[in-house]
Structures are given as C-alpha cells and as structure tokens.
C-alpha cells in the first residue's frame, strides 16, 4: 500500500502490489526506457486587460472569437489574424520536411567548402548527413539536431521562433517513435549536445505581443507532449518531467529556485470524503503555498485548507492522473529517499527496464538539469495561461 509517501509490502509479491497500485499500462512493457542504444546506421527494430488568443477555436469556427481570460465579450467576434493560427497537434511530416531541407542545405554547404580545400592524404570521407532520419546513427543525429537549433530555416530562409523550433523537434521526436526508434532526443544521454544547444536556443523565449495587443500563444501545447511521449511514465526521465510539469501547472512553481525547494516531506497526500456519501472519497496531493511563489504561510501561523496548492486525481484518465503518476514515482524511488526534506526530483538510473524495482538513485538532479527541463515546460501554452492567471490573481 502507499501510505504517506511510503510503500510497504506485506504478504504479497511486488508484482501484485504493482497491479493493485498502478494501471497495468504502466508495467506491461509499453513503456520506453533508456536502454543501450545502437550507435551505427540502420533502422531501429486574465484579466480585463490581458487578451490571450485561444487557438483551440480554430477547429470550431472559421471566424475566430476573441478569448478573454477573466472577461468574456460574448457579443463580439473578431477574425483571427492569419499569423495567429497555431498548430493543434503534432505533424511528424512537418518535422521531417524541416530535417530534409536542413540536410540538403548543409550537405551543399559542406560540398562547397570541400571544393575550396585540398583534402589531406589519408583523410576519411567527409561527413554528410542523411535525409533518411530514421536510419541516421545516434552520434550523427546528435550533431545534426544540435546544429539545427542554430541553422534550421523555412522554405524562404526564414528563421524559426524558439517555440516554433521546439515544436519542430517535437514533431521529429514523434516521427522517430512512430518509425521504430526508441531514443528520446530530449533526455537520453546520447543527445547531451543537442539538449544543451536546444536550451540555449529556447532560454530567452518570452511570449510575443501582437501589434493588435494580443499575447501570441506558444506553438507547443500540453497535448503535444503527451503525443510524443514527453509526458507520462514511459521512462524515468519522462516521469520526472511529468512531475515537474504538474508541479508547475498546479502548484504554480515557475522558477528553478521554487522547484529546488520541493521535497518529499513537503508534498502531502490528502483524502477528502464526500459529506453526503462517506464511501465516496477523492485523493489529492498538496503543497503549502509558503513553500511556493506566493509565500502566504508564516512560521507559527495556523494552516488552513486555502493555504495549499493542490493536484487532484483524474480517475477517468489514470495514465495522465497526477496522483497515479505521483504514486508510481514513489514506488520507483529508493526507500531511503522518500522522507527527505531536501530533495524531490531524483536522478534517473542510466539503464533500467520497465519492471526494474528502482528507477532512480538517491542523488537529486542538478539545478542545471532543473533549468533545462523547466525552460521547455514554461514554453507550453497551458503553462503560460496558468502563469498569466496567477499574476492577475496576485494583483
């Protein structure tokens, strides 16, 4: 059973405990975990003043209605400027097109450079990148994707805004997964160079303001992250990202410093009974606001329910349920780490299997790792909306 953040096993096997605690999909092998990856070619076997455009209405209206956070103007409709039309799902073929275009231009550049130089005797054949994304070797893909963070362009030679660039790489990730590749370009250790260069490209991103005064939403949505397995229990790194995503979205932790203050002992499990039906219970996890950005709790002050931020369970969607994923994380953490008051995000073990009893070491991830993960999370459209509404509430 899971009780107060610990897992105790009594009279049952580990497998039985797992089957009762977590959805079977968490444990049935349909989970990507970082394994030893091939390094050779070949396919792998509001507010009144804050206006935010809501791209979801693209699906429902040809003329798009202005969405006001906290203030609804039901009588007026405004046509969406063309440049505000945003993607609503990942299109892997778009990532592939950008990849192929970059490869063609890069190889042409390398060919031109080679013609202007005398090749040394005995020099190996110059590197050329493959248009076939799926059969590209890991080392080659790592270098290419890193270069793309600085060089990727559209058909007309236009540079991508950081959020659009992130969207392109998410499309590429989905394309790889759909075509049999198991590597996660955002978290596998083989893609460290790409991860570092991507962070540099994304770090300075802030939401843009349209000349008409609207905040232009990010290209990246939460659903897109679920689509390409960047959220969920697919691997230790993905599960860790998911916890940080939920803590940002629901606990309103938006800085590295705030996330570094989260600890196992500060995240509290809470069960609430339905007054009209005592058998009807709902479970949540709580975090005292005094530990977060609002700083509402002071030493010696009586703690009341409204002083907590909360993540509620989602019984209709267990694979995306914050409580199920929190429990699963506890189950995969070393027992000695679960009561700590100085750590929450633990370092994933480098090589694990889905049924490995432990996915994490006792060592917390570094502040640099938190920063890299949080930078990508902050770019998500729903997170930006949460931040905007939180800033309004504070005023």
Automatic annotation (TrEMBL):
InterPro entries: QRICH1_dom (IPR057926), ZMYM2-like_C (IPR021893), ZnF_MYMT-QRICH1 (IPR051284). Keywords: Isopeptide bond, Phosphoprotein, Ubl conjugation. The keyword Lipid metabolism does not apply. Residues 217-379 form the ZMYM2-like/QRICH1 C-terminal domain. Residues 90-205 form the QRICH1-like domain. This is Glutamine-rich 1. It comes from Oncorhynchus kisutch (Coho salmon).
